[in-house]
Specification:
The complex is a heterodimer. Helices cover about 50% and strands about 15% of the residues of chain A. By secondary structure, chain A is α/β, with parallel strands linked by helices. Chain A has one domain (about 10-150): Rossmann fold (3-Layer(aba) Sandwich), CATH 3.40.50. Chain A has a four-stranded parallel β-sheet with strand order 2-1-3-4, with helices on both faces. The chains are: A alpha/beta, B alpha/beta.
């Protein structure tokens, strides 16, 4: 069996991290190809439900990244996002969700190398953790239950 | 009790209110909310330590808003949600008359929301029961995998009746994300992933606004302690940003504001 290749979804802001990833590309910096980038106008737009949907649809890890504090194109979007993440992360932690699979970072348009480094790090980490099955298992147990019930009837 | 009934009857007679929302004893001696429409009905009213329901949820129903002059008998949870609702500008189109009964069985008629604010701030409400505290501690002490198992077992019983939403005074959106079907954020059927998403979404939308009356947990037909999610959120909010909802009319909604010096240790 070939090595497990994680699916990583990156929610990034248009003005900093997306441009940073672009820079990594134009610099021909090599980094893991597991990441799928989704561009948003601002980190403030990244709703927590999007992260949940990513995991539900088979992502093994998620990167959320935007401008450094005080650098936001819209002045305060990333400050609002930061508060939301602090709370969201502690809620997930309380529920017992594996918060190690979500990586938050600040990457500016000039930090192409940091982007490449973070993607590599996350890919390595998720590889060592293995596929994300917590949600899949839930659905399987339900299906199995239904199947068992149907069989016994 | 008689004092309260007389006071309410008086309010009806001098035209201050056209509707009073309070508590009464149902046939099975259970305390239930009731709507008093004239002075002769006022004798049904009671107020005891069992009056736990948060009555402010009725204030943003269109049927009640139509009546305009509405009285409400508030326990501390109700008063706190009234403060929160006022700060969210939800009660501007209603003339509410707020009554409460304190520990000495004295009736307090508030002249305005400022007085409610002062009352709530002086009588610091401790609305967590011992049971809740113990359960919260227990869940916190579990390792991550066990916590996940615990909550998934709880959520798997959720039948998505949305009673928690209906009973919550802060859930007043006319259209909820859960009914939004393009895109379908949350699956309609009651299966565990969808249930998990629903409860996460509910807790997140209430973070910084929940006043911890615990109605959602009390009303849950399958007994999921969902109020613990928002309680935990509130603890975190207080720890991180020192905000406490339902305490001041200034209405600093924690998720709607920020400080450049907010601390966090997980962003790379």
């Amino acid at each position: 069996m070939s090595e497990f290749e994680p699916k990583i979804v990156a929610f990034v802001c248009n003005w900093c991290t997306y441009a940073g990833a672009d820079l990594a590309g134009t610099n021909r910096t090599k980094y893991a190809s597991n990441v799928k980038i989704i561009r948003f106008p601002c980190t403030g737009r990244i709703d927590f439900m999007l992260l949940m949907k990513a995991f539900e649809n088979g992502a093994d890890g998620v990167i959320v990244s935007g401008c450094h504090p005080n650098d936001c194109h819209y002045t305060s979007g990333n400050f609002h996002a930061r508060r939301r993440w602090i709370i969201f992360r502690s809620l997930l932690d309380f529920i017992g969700f594996d918060t190690d699979r979500i990586t938050f970072s600040w990457i500016s348009a000039a930090e192409g190398n940091k982007w490449a480094q973070i993607v590599d790090e996350v890919t390595e980490k998720i590889k060592s953790k293995g596929p994300f099955t917590d949600l899949k298992k839930l659905n399987c147990t339900l299906l199995k239950q239904l199947y068992d019930e149907a069989i016994t009837k | 009790m008689k004092l309260l009934q007389n006071k309410v009857a008086e309010l009806f007679k001098n035209g201050t209110i056209n509707l009073m929302i309070g508590f009464k004893n149902a046939l099975n001696k259970q305390v239930v909310p009731c709507f008093i429409e004239n002075s002769s009905q006022a004798e049904q009213l009671i107020y005891t330590a069992d009056c736990k329901n948060n009555l402010s949820v009725y204030l943003h129903k269109p049927e009640v808003k139509k009546i305009k002059k509405v009285g409400i008998i508030g326990n501390i949870a109700t008063l706190r949600s009234l403060i929160q609702l006022t700060s969210e500008n939800q009660l501007w189109d209603i003339e509410q008359t707020i009554l409460t009964v304190n520990e000495k069985d004295e009736i307090i008629l508030f002249k305005n929301m400022r007085e409610v604010e002062t009352y709530v701030q002086t009588y610091f409400p401790e609305n967590h029961t011992e049971e809740d505290k113990k359960l919260l501690e227990y869940i916190d002490s579990l390792p991550r995998e066990e916590r996940w198992k615990y909550w998934m077992e709880q959520f798997s019983t959720c039948i998505k009746c949305y009673a928690c939403r209906a009973v919550c005074p802060m859930c007043y959106c006319t259209q909820c994300t859960v009914e939004c079907n393009q895109p379908q954020w949350i699956k309609i059927s009651s299966e565990t992933t969808g249930n998990l998403e629903w409860h996460i979404m509910r807790a997140m939308h209430l973070a910084g606004r929940c006043i911890e009356c615990g109605e959602c947990g009390r009303v849950c037909p399958v007994g999921i302690p969902i109020h613990l999610l928002t309680t935990k959120m509130n603890q975190e909010l207080f720890k991180e940003f020192a905000t406490r909802p339902g305490f001041s009319l200034k209405g600093e909604y924690a998720m709607n504001t920020f400080k450049p010096e907010d601390k966090e240790g997980f962003i790379k």
